[in-house]
UniProtKB/TrEMBL annotation:
Regions of compositional bias (Basic and acidic residues) in chain numbering: 583-593
Primary role: Binds mRNA; thus facilitating recognition of the initiation point. It is needed to translate mRNA with a short Shine-Dalgarno (SD) purine-rich sequence.
The keyword Nucleotidyltransferase belongs to this UniProt entry's keyword annotation: no
Compositionally biased tracts (Low complexity): 546-557
One Pfam family matching this protein: S1
Protein name in UniProt: 30S ribosomal protein S1
Record's GO cellular component terms: cytosolic small ribosomal subunit
UniProt similarity note: Belongs to the bacterial ribosomal protein bS1 family.
PROSITE patterns: S1
Region (Disordered): 541-593
Top-level taxonomic group: Bacteria
All copies of domain S1 motif, residue ranges: 43-106, 124-190, 211-279, 296-366, 385-455, 472-537
Gene Ontology biological process: translation
């Protein structure tokens, strides 16, 4: 009973839960309870322990007064999740409308991902990502669940032509830029490669020397050469150092990504520019030329280039000879080499000069045929007086050059084109490429000179004109042109005459003008100089005629009839002669030619 008496029944008999404690005991109890709870803040990431798992939710204890529920779908990446596992969670709400703690693992992963990405940028960390897909200008890489952009230029040190080969593969990258405004992350794989290449580059440059043979990969091709990656160091293989033969573009013999062996030709002091060669790894073709090749030898080859001055014939790759345009034809008139050959032609030539030390040779193709000036029948074929037909090749102030056959040219002096026309320049009579009939006037085989004449195909009509246009005879003439010295007149038979200004006066005091067709009297005739001087004034003034030669009135045009209506002196003395008519027809035909 003593024990029962000691029991405090007043303290035990309480009316409600938690009653019966003194203030001090209650405060101590609350303190112990509060110490078992964790202080948490919303919108932060904390760690929690899995205390329950079912098909729909995962129950998480974070040390708060209540546990949180997280959808099972947010743990798909953890198929083996079990009670007791620790996971990171994002506190969205400490207590929602139902009094529950709201947690999110998905947001926790995203927050943690951005923290890791920012740390990677700050501390230059390497991240492993998964290439998800190709996009314009590069690739999309998944890092920590965040989609980052990998530009095409940052994939590798060499240009990438096919991005699709990287899709679905893991790749190590570094964060190079973060744009928080639109949550954009830019990464690079190239910087990792460049680091690895730095060691190789330093080793290559330290050991670099002329004549060293290296292996490299063709990374870029241009029309002037090829850039070769030697292992972190680029060198230029110029197009002229690819092959001993002539090539127009490197792609004719090389391909991108090919592995090639090259030799170091030169590099600057800073070792930033390296010149490489490929053809230097083989012997020069000139060194393997046949000993039988000498001046006069006939060779065969292919035309590889045509210039204004000639063409280059390739006998073998790296062995070329120049065929100057003057050695393409015996013709003395140089033409365009393209008239004789074109690129790709397979032709034969003769060696004219050969210098094996300087690796030069000149060739000729006209030497394959006989020089026409040395032919035995040259003297008889082009004897003085023989007639020929040729092509006008060139015009000069003093005449024209006529090609009678290839290599045989002759000069037709401007004075030998026409008996009657005064020709100042050959272009007034013919043009280049016209055909012209001529007669040989002079032949000099030793000096390769041939004088030709065209007018000599006809007899000299001035012998006949001397009787047709004697001094004192009257003819109707047309004024062709006029200046302060006089006028040029058109006479019968296509001849030209001249009248001084004072001899153009008419009877009424006016002057004969251009286009007028009036009578003129011959005052001077020179067969040697082919000159006829006339006067209109002399038709009505006797003193206008030269005093030494009395006027001799003969006319080819009707004059004024006498008062009696007679026909005196109406016809010219030789106007009706058959011989003159025939001469006129013959002259007109010659002028047309």
């Amino acid at each position: 009973m003593s024990n029962n008496e000691d029991f405090n029944w007043d303290k035990f008999e309480t009316k409600g839960f938690g009653e019966g404690y003194t203030s001090a005991e209650r405060a101590e109890m609350e303190k112990l309870y509060d110490e078992t709870l964790t202080e948490i803040s919303e919108k932060e990431v904390i760690k929690g322990t899995v205390v329950g798992v079912n098909d729909k939710d995962v129950i998480i204890n974070i040390g708060f007064k209540s546990d949180g529920l997280v959808p099972r779908t947010e743990f798909r990446d953890l198929p083996d999740l079990k009670i007791g596992d620790e996971v990171e969670l994002f506190i969205e709400e400490q207590e929602n409308s139902l009094g529950q703690l709201v947690l999110s693992r998905k947001k926790a992963k995203m927050v943690r991902a951005w923290q890791d990405i920012e740390d990677a940028l700050e501390f230059d960390n390497v991240i492993e990502g998964l290439v998800k897909r190709r996009t314009k200008g590069g690739l999309i890489v998944d890092i920590y669940g965040v989609e980052a952009f990998l530009p095409g230029s940052q994939i590798d040190v060499k240009p990438i032509r096919d991005f699709d080969v990287y899709v679905g593969k893991k790749m190590e990258v570094k964060v190079v830029k973060i744009n928080h405004a639109n949550d954009n992350v830019v990464v690079s794989h190239k910087v990792l490669i460049e680091k690895d290449l730095e060691k190789q580059k330093a080793e290559i440059l330290n050991n670099l020397e002329k004549g060293q043979v290296l292996e490299g990969v063709i990374k870029n091709m241009t029309n002037f050469g090829v850039f070769i990656d030697l292992g972190g160091v680029d060198g230029l293989l110029h197009i002229t150092d690819i092959s001993w033969g002539r090539i127009n573009h490197p792609e004719e013999v090389l391909n991108l990504d090919d592995k090639v062996q090259v030799v170091v030709l030169d590099f600057d002091d800073d070792k930033k520019r390296i010149s490489l060669g490929m053809k230097q790894l083989t012997a020069h073709p000139w060194d393997s030329l046949s000993a039988e090749l000498e001046v006069g030898s006939k060779v065969k080859g292919r035309i590889v280039n045509v210039a204004d001055y000639g063409a280059f014939l390739e006998l073998a790759p790296g062995v070329e000879g120049l065929i100057h345009v003057s050695e393409m034809s015996w013709s003395q008139h140089l033409r365009n080499p393209a008239d004789f050959v074109k690129v790709g032609d397979e032709i034969e030539a003769v060696v004219l000069t050969l210098d094996k030390e300087d690796r030069k040779m000149s060739l000729g193709i006209k030497q394959l045929t006989e020089d026409p000036w040395t032919k035995q029948d040259m003297v008889t074929k082009y004897a003085v007086g023989t007639k020929h037909q040729g092509v006008v090749r060139n015009l000069t102030n003093f005449g024209l050059f006529l090609e009678l056959e290839e290599g045989i040219d002759g000069l037709v002096h401007v004075s030998d084109l026409s008996w009657t026309k005064k020709i100042k320049h050959p272009s007034e009579y013919v043009k280049v490429n016209d055909e012209l009939e001529v007669v040989v006037l002079e032949l000099d085989v030793d000096n390769r000179r041939l004088a030709l004449g065209h007018k000599q195909l006809e007899e000299n009509p001035w012998d006949t004109f001397e009787g047709v246009f004697p001094v004192g005879s009257t003819h109707k003439c047309t004024v062709v042109s006029k200046n302060d010295k006089g006028a040029v007149l058109e006479l019968p038979y296509g001849l030209e005459g001249f009248a001084t200004i004072k001899n153009l006066d008419k009877e009424d005091g006016s002057q004969v003008e251009v286009g007028d067709a009036v009578d003129f009297v011959v005052t001077e005739f020179s067969k040697d100089d082919k000159r006829i001087v006339l006067s209109h004034t002399a038709t009505f003034r006797e003193d206008a005629m030269p005093s030494k030669q009395p006027a001799k009135k003969t006319s080819s045009a009707p004059k004024k009839k006498p008062a009696g209506g007679g026909d005196a002196q109406e016809k010219s003395t030789l106007g009706d002669l058959d011989a003159l008519s025939a001469l006129k027809e013959k002259m007109e035909g010659g002028d047309k030619k």
